[in-house]
Design brief:
Structural class: mainly beta
Largest sheet: 4 strands, antiparallel
Number of strands: 30
Helix content: under 10%
Strand order of the largest sheet: 1-30-29-28
Length: 462
């Protein structure tokens, strides 16, 4: 389908969504400036793709400079630790590698973060074991770079940890920066106990062990935010299917012995990360009753400790489970938003709701973005359903204080992003009217793409 037809279908679906009258235009508009491929990494076949660490940032913006972290697959090296990190920058001549690992091996992509005036930090997890070792020991490491003279890191730092945790090639780590205070926070999971260990880097560059977070079950892919001395963590439960009947049905249909489930969402916080441990996690939401699916998407932290949480929720994980155990119930998929402070839920709101078989938008993935005026936006990948068609596209919306669903506006990237990262403040990028998007696109295979959008102010029409 050509691009104009795609947009026509998407706009038709939008007309079905509730919201203000069509004659009223938002004061803000988001426009697409460019979209381009960056690189196609060779498959590593180690269980961790180039966007595997979706909770931690892989793209950052420093002024007019944009950097992304990409994994390089090592040829003829067996899994699991068979990749190395590369740091890429978008220059006037296109995307170029400006720093890379030439010695260590690891399994996962490596998140990045910025601290002013000119430091970039990369969180790595290099293996300590021989080539081909699976589930072997690794040493969490943070590399510091000078943006004014990129190449070799100016420092190699080892975060401090409480006790003697067991760290392996499955780190499930989080990474966050507070650009105003010059601080960093790293989380890394203990492979034996499933506790998330916490290490904090103060403004003087000293690392401090800050204990561990015990979730009710193993929780992974954390989004971590650090601001004004406060910190919070959003993580999703990640365990093998615990219900015997559902597990047996999955083995029968999926033809595999395991199936990890993501349906309990957890949140924890501390109001003084340098001195106080994280509070016992609370369960923010659950799709446990219906064998559903939740994906933690993004997290934004204000200076007063108010946390904005974004996630998707699907009533049933797989259609065949619904058909077998919940006959007659339609699948419902929603984009959910919650606001918390001090562990208290201040607001819970369904931003977009899609019922199986209906017309409208189903949000498949989303991120939060903060502009230079402090306004909060949602950037989404969604499928627009209309009679006889289902079209992928990208959308944006301004999050306001009003209740009810969002009106999503088309964001016409020529190749719609499906899973993506943005220049989040969690990674030390300044709130900005420029939105950097880095990820994969619909029909684009394994190629990693970059896109740039911009927020512009427009008056309301009368």
């Amino acid at each position: 389908m050509s691009l104009p037809k795609r947009l026509i279908v998407a706009l038709a679906a939008l007309l079905l969504l509730p919201g203000p009258a069509q004659s009223l235009r938002a004061q803000q508009q988001v426009t697409v400036e460019l979209q381009e491929p960056v690189v196609t990494p060779a498959p590593a076949n180690n269980g961790a793709g180039p966007l595997w660490c979706y909770g931690a940032p892989l793209v950052v913006r420093s002024g007019e400079r944009v950097f992304v972290s990409i994994v390089e697959t090592l040829p003829n090296v067996p899994p699991l630790c068979n990749t190395r990190w590369q740091l890429w920058e978008r220059t006037s001549d296109g995307w170029k590698v400006v720093a890379q690992d030439r010695q260590q091996r690891q399994r996962e992509p490596c998140p990045i973060a910025l601290l002013p005036p000119s430091r970039l930090f990369l969180s790595a997890n290099p293996s300590l074991e021989p080539v081909g070792t699976r589930y072997g020991r690794c040493r969490p490491t943070v590399y510091a770079f000078d943006l004014d003279s990129l190449g070799e890191p100016v420092a190699v730092e080892l975060p401090a940890w409480e006790g003697r945790p067991t760290f392996t090639d499955h780190s499930y780590r989080g990474f966050a920066a507070d650009r105003l205070r010059g601080e960093l926070l790293v989380l890394n999971i203990d492979a034996r106990t499933s506790e998330q260990f916490v290490s904090y880097r103060d403004a003087r560059g000293r690392w401090h062990a800050r204990g561990k977070i015990r979730f009710p079950i193993r929780a992974c892919y954390p989004q971590v935010a650090l601001r004004a001395g406060r910190a919070c963590v959003l993580a999703i439960g990640d365990i093998v299917e615990p219900v015997a009947a559902w597990r047996a049905a999955k083995r029968e249909v999926l033809k595999r012995e395991w199936d990890y489930v993501f349906r309990r969402l957890f949140f924890t916080w501390t109001d003084d990360v340098a001195r106080k441990p994280f509070a016992p996690p609370i369960e923010l939401d659950s799709a446990e009753r219906t064998c559903g699916f939740i994906r933690n998407l993004d997290l934004y932290l204000e200076t007063d400790g108010t946390a904005h949480v974004l996630y998707t929720k699907r009533l049933f994980q797989y259609p065949f489970l619904r058909d077998r155990f919940f006959q007659g119930e339609p699948n419902v998929e929603t984009l959910e938003y919650a606001v918390l402070r001090g562990g208290k839920l201040l607001q819970r709101r369904t931003l977009v709701r899609y019922v199986e078989g209906s017309q409208g938008l189903r949000v498949d993935y989303a991120r939060l973005h903060v502009d230079r005026a402090g306004r909060l936006y949602v950037l989404a990948a969604a499928t627009a359903f209309a009679p006889g068609s289902a079209v992928s596209g990208n959308y944006w919306a301004l999050v306001t204080a009003r209740d009810g669903p969002l009106r999503l506006h088309p964001l016409p990237f020529p190749r719609p992003f499906t899973v993506f990262f943005t220049n989040t403040p969690r990674g030390g990028s300044e709130p900005s009217d420029v939105i950097d998007v880095f990820g994969i696109v619909s029909g684009g295979g394994a190629t990693l793409w970059y896109g740039r959008a911009r927020i512009v102010r427009r008056n309301r029409s009368r």
